[in-house]
Amino acid sequence: MREHVKNFIYFLEAERGVSENTIKSYSADLAKLEKFLSRGKKELNSVSREDIVSFLLYLKDLGLNSSTIARNLAAIKTFWKFLVSEQIVKENVASLVESPRTWKTIPDVLTREEVERLLEAPGGKKLADLRDKAILEIMYASGLRVSEVADLKRSGVNIDAGFVKCYGKGGKERIVPFGKAAGEAISRYLDRGGAALAASTGDQHLFVSKLGRKISRQSLWKVIQKYALRSGIKKHITPHTLRHSFATHLLEGGADLRGVQEMLGHSDISTTQIYTHVNSDKLKKVHETFHPRGT
Description:
The chain has two domains: 2-102, DNA polymerase, domain 1 (Orthogonal Bundle), CATH 1.10.150.130; 112-283, Orthogonal Bundle (hpI Integrase, Chain A). It has helices at residues 2-16, 20-39, 49-61, 66-85, 112-120, 127-142, 146-151, 180-201, 217-230, 241-252, 257-264, 269-272, 274-290, and strands at residues 157-158, 163-167, 173-177. The protein has a three-stranded antiparallel sheet. The protein contains 13 helices and three strands, in the order αααααααβββαααααα. It is elongated and about 75 Å long. It is mainly alpha-helical. β2 and β3 (173-177) form a beta hairpin.
């Protein structure tokens, strides 16, 4: 890689007229990448988009700010564009990597104990209680977005098989599994009036309002807020909190990143990979707390 970097720098100087400061920055940034890739003995042709994302997360772990990491990515993207033009590699694997400037700070993730408290909060026997219980269970069991939960059709839920069919961003269909607890909660809701209420208006959606019409995203948000307050959870909870908790708990349990990506409906694994960073932060805190030389 080092020889290709030298040729790239010469190209920038001789043909692009890039400033001296940019040359120095790009040289330093690519040197860091070379050192990082050498740990895995990676050849340029075998470097993947995931390797580049891992490198960016490594820089974040070092405490670099998003603008500095973004500059590193700019150097990498320009370098890979050069490699493709010189037919050194076939694909610009860096082209679709999201800029660190757009990385979002994910909301608080609930602990497993907090999730249990939240799921147990709708303890009543009224139809609204049964519906709210089913909503919370399916959101945590499947990691669906709030809009996807609101759009769920009764025909898209297979309780016996434990799968739900939903449509994510861009109308892309995906099949997501859910567990026994969510299936039982949905069955109770439907059997004890939910299906009849929706049928009375001809609505095909799984979750409906007291008027028998599709529940809105705003109403779903209020459901989550209501039971978070009732369960005594102090964290700031948003409609995405159960989705984030779903992904984090799966990865903590040893789930494969690709599988979690598919269940979440992320088109780019770099979006899913932020949860590995969250998990690493937690492990680091555990190490610092309990290891004799952790601090």
